[in-house]
Amino acid sequence: MKRLSILYSILFFLAACSSDPPKREIVENHEPETTLQTDDTQYLYISDAANVSVAKLTIGKNVLIETDGVGNIAGVLKNSKRKYYDQRDNELGAISYNDGGLKMKRGDQLVYKLKWDYADKIKLADNEEMNNAIEIKKKEDVLVVLKGGQELDRFRMMNEASNIKLKDSLYITGFQRSFAQGLLLIHEMGLQEKLILMAEVKAAGK
């Protein structure tokens, strides 16, 4: 437990030293890489219409998620798995990776399976067989969320790093054309799981 507390302190210090989210103006940026990012730190911001932070994700070898909604979360990479903990050092879930995606488990129980070995989409399900999966699909500049072939929601992506209005008065920064922003449009997912999987998708360059 002490080691995790020390890690929390380090992660919070690094996050505090990072720059504030950029103002809502258009800034050019590059497309995300397509390989797992473990060295270069990335920052994702979600804010409301009043520019009040909803969540900040700091993504490097380890992950720090800062939010008032579900408390702060730390993700620690070890032996090809990343385990996520709350501020009391309770384990929230473990992420295991393969070439085609990842699995999120709590103990031996599967929470979500995510597949990203497609050219234009990722798929998410709560079972090994990927039955009744949700798809987040890119159609030119539009990100479409589908389930059973039926469209649930859509969002126009932009390359810019600045704050972009998503839905329901939410603004996002740092996502560029990542599938990660599509997870915010899945209403049946809990916020904690959304934030963890958003960090993982962005870390993988998807």
Explained architecture:
With 206 residues, this protein is mainly beta. The chain has one domain (2-203). The chain has two helices and 14 strands. The chain has helices at residues 2-17, 191-203, and strands at 42-47, 53-59, 63-67, 73-78, 81-85, 91-98, 101-106, 109-115, 121-125, 134-139, 142-147, 150-156, 164-165, 171-173. The protein has a 14-stranded antiparallel β-sheet, sandwiched between helices. The longest helix has 16 residues, at 2-17. The chain is globular.
Give structural attributes.
2 helices, 14-stranded antiparallel beta sheet, mainly beta, globular
Give a short overview.
With 206 residues, the chain is mainly beta. 14% of the residues lie in helices and 38% in strands. The chain has one domain.
Q: Which range does the strand content fall in? A: 35-45%
Tally of separate helices: 2
Q: Distance between the terminal alpha carbons, to the nearest Å?
A: 32 Å
Gross geometry: globular
Contiguous uncertain segments of 5+ residues: 22-38
Q: What is the string of SSEs from the N terminus onward? A: HEEEEEEEEEEEEEEH
The number of distinct β-strands equals: 14
- Spatial order of the strands in the main sheet? 12-11-10-9-8-7-6-5-4-3-2-1-14-13
Summed up, the domain count is: 1
Which value, in Å, is the CA radius of gyration? 16 Å
Structural class given helices, strands, pairing? mainly beta
Largest sheet: 14 strands, antiparallel
